[in-house]
Design goal:
With about 550 residues, the protein is of the alpha+beta class. The chain folds into 5 domains: about 110 residues, Rossmann fold; about 60 residues, ATP-grasp fold, A domain (Dna Ligase, domain 1, 2-Layer Sandwich); about 130 residues, ATP-grasp fold, B domain (D-amino Acid Aminotransferase, Chain A, domain 1, 2-Layer Sandwich), CATH 3.30.470; about 80 residues, Aldehyde Oxidoreductase, domain 3 (Alpha-Beta Complex), CATH 3.90.1170; about 120 residues, no CATH class. The strands form 4 sheets. The protein has an 8-stranded antiparallel sheet, sandwiched between helices. Helix 2 packs across helix 3, helix 5 packs across helix 7 and helix 15 runs parallel beside helix 16. The longest helix is centred in the C-terminal third of the chain and has 32 residues. The radius of gyration is 26 Å and the shape is globular.
Length: about 550
């Protein structure tokens, strides 16, 4: 165990008995930053615990403790020592999957919180589904397995995910038995207990809900539209707060969520739910006994409502009556994600431009980092958050910011080569979803014509009106290629590398086209220095 103090225990800034209450916050990452900041603003002595010794927000705490959040006994031992030496008044988390560790510590030290068994109900998806079944709460049929079963008690398609993990790690849709083995193996790999849950697929739009629960009363603190893409995986490319759904649908959705909270036994604390609106009505994906991650409770809800839900969660963790009142403002806040095709980051352009009309930009990569096309919600490259009085303005600001950020990849790179060679595959999908007509036009382009090192025009694509993963048009993407490479793309000319360029462009968007140009330049430079012939994408 490693303990660091940002303030000396014996110096003038030490926590004196009776002077301040102490709150322990599990996690010192970006998602726990608001809790640490708000707790400090409330005059609390903050103790952060994280398994990462370099957790990005550890310096926001008065004390930092390096303990893996899975090690609930070790955390409880430290918390007990803290309680006996300088006092401990509460423990909480936000945006982690360790509400069980929070409840374990609170129960052992007789601090405010939910029972440990209730926390397990809200973190183990098999227990969660059992609670919902017993209470008659709408949720999908399910079964648990540690390997692929030969038959299921419900039809395909199904969703396979770890019993005990978050961030869509190891979560995917499965349409047949042939796909089930790999999906279960992947889910088990991401499960701390080595189990996968297999559920009926729920078709319909998805929503996230945050709530504060005090003495059994459930106070809704925001409902957001989730923007999920790239099946068979479920990648959240952002969310918009508040929802655009009408009260006709939000009312039964929230009633279903409240039934789920009661079924799990959450009587004091926070609750976060993911729900779908299906043809059969609202159904619960899952409910966690904590504040949400994904920039919702700490950013988009406060921006849109003017209310810091985190403060209420801290007050409940201290055994205080939460301040949930106020007259919320009615703004919109939009969060959107930046993603990349596979490779190694060479440079990142457009950060200053992206920041002009948004509240926050969270870069998760830097030059030299390896990137991949996301298969879960923790492998994205950046997130942007906007806020504005109108929904249209907030969404436009966030989406423009995403399109401003350009990630250039090193060339050559085998991971990028492999990705670009697999054009027209279902997953990862092409950056531009082309029609069969455009595919045939691509095949008809000359592969190598003339002696010029320029690229033939492709009006079938340029005039199609289609956009890439984040809404860039063909023209905007070509501008991005020019910006990254300085390579002039003539409107009309016969080209030496025409079909290869446009194949890379369709498959990998501006990144694929820029990589293609960089790859060609590398090839030409290498050829000038060596007699070895290197292959390049065709």
């Amino acid at each position: 165990m490693f303990v660091s103090n940002n303030y000396s225990k014996t110096g003038p800034f030490a926590r004196l008995s009776g002077m301040k209450k102490t709150i322990m916050i599990l996690g010192a990452g970006v998602m726990q930053g608001p809790a640490l900041r708000i707790a400090a603003g409330m005059g609390l002595w903050t103790v952060a615990v994280d398994g990462d010794p370099d957790a990005p927000c550890k310096n926001l705490a008065n004390q930092f403790v390096h303990i893996d959040l899975k090690e609930k006994e070790s955390i409880a031992d430290f918390a007990g020592e803290l309680q006996s030496t300088q006092g401990l008044d509460g423990v909480m988390t936000a945006g982690t999957d360790f509400s069980g560790s929070v409840a374990f510590v609170a129960e052992k030290l007789h601090l405010p919180g939910i029972p440990y068994e209730v926390a397990l109900n809200a973190s183990d998806k098999s227990r969660m589904r059992q609670c919902f079944e017993h209470a008659g709460v709408p949720s999908p049929h399910w079964t648990v397995a540690d390997s692929a079963p030969e038959s299921l008690p419900f039809p395909y398609p199904v969703v396979v995910k770890p019993v005990d993990n978050m961030g869509a790690r190891g979560c995917r849709r499965v349409d047949s038995y042939a796909e089930l083995h790999d999906a279960v193996t992947d889910a088990v790999h991401f499960s701390r207990s080595g189990r996968a849950i297999i559920e009926e697929y729920m078709d319909g739009p998805e929503f996230s809900v945050d709530a504060i629960v005090y003495q059994g009363d459930i106070h809704i603190c925001g409902i957001a539209d989730r923007h999920i893409y790239f099946e068979p995986y479920f990648i959240e490319m952002g969310h918009t707060m508040p929802t655009a759904l009408s009260p006709e649908y939000t009312t039964p959705l929230l009633e279903t969520f409240k039934k789920g909270v009661r079924a799990l036994g959450i009587g004091n604390g926070a609750a976060k739910g993911d729900l779908k609106l299906t043809a059969q009505g609202p159904m619960i994906g899952e409910i966690a006994a904590r504040l949400s991650g994904g920039y919702m409770s700490g950013w988009t809800y406060p921006y849109s409502s003017g209310v810091e839900v985190t403060e209420a969660a801290i007050q409940i963790a201290l055994g205080e009556n939460p301040n949930i009142g106020g007259s919320p403002k009615k703004w919109t806040s939009a969060e959107r994600a930046v993603i990349s095709i596979p490779g190694t980051v060479s440079s990142i352009q457009g950060i200053e431009e992206a920041q002009k009309n948004i509240q926050n930009l969270f870069m998760r990569i830097k030059p030299g980092d390896h990137v991949r096309f996301p298969e879960n919600n923790v492998t994205k490259c950046a997130n942007v958050i906007s806020a504005a009085a109108s929904r249209e303005e907030a969404i436009s600001a966030a989406e423009n910011a995403v399109r401003s950020i350009l990630i250039r990849l090193n060339a050559p790179d085998p991971h990028t080569e492999q990705f670009l060679a697999r054009i027209h595959e279902a997953f990862p999908p092409d950056a531009f979803p082309v029609t069969e007509k455009i595919r045939k036009a691509l095949e008809a382009l000359p592969e190598s014509v003339g002696e010029e090192e320029s690229i033939v025009a492709f009006p079938a694509l340029s005039d199609s009106g289609i956009t890439d993963y984040v809404g860039r048009s063909v023209g905007e993407s070509l501008d991005a290629v020019r910006s990254l490479t300085g390579y002039a793309l003539p409107v009309q000319s016969t080209g030496k590398y025409s079909r290869g360029f446009w194949s890379a462009f369709i498959r990998g968007g501006y990144q694929g086209a820029a990589y293609f140009i960089d790859r060609i330049n590398y090839f030409l430079e290498y050829s000038a220095r060596s007699t070895t012939v290197l292959p390049f994408i065709k």
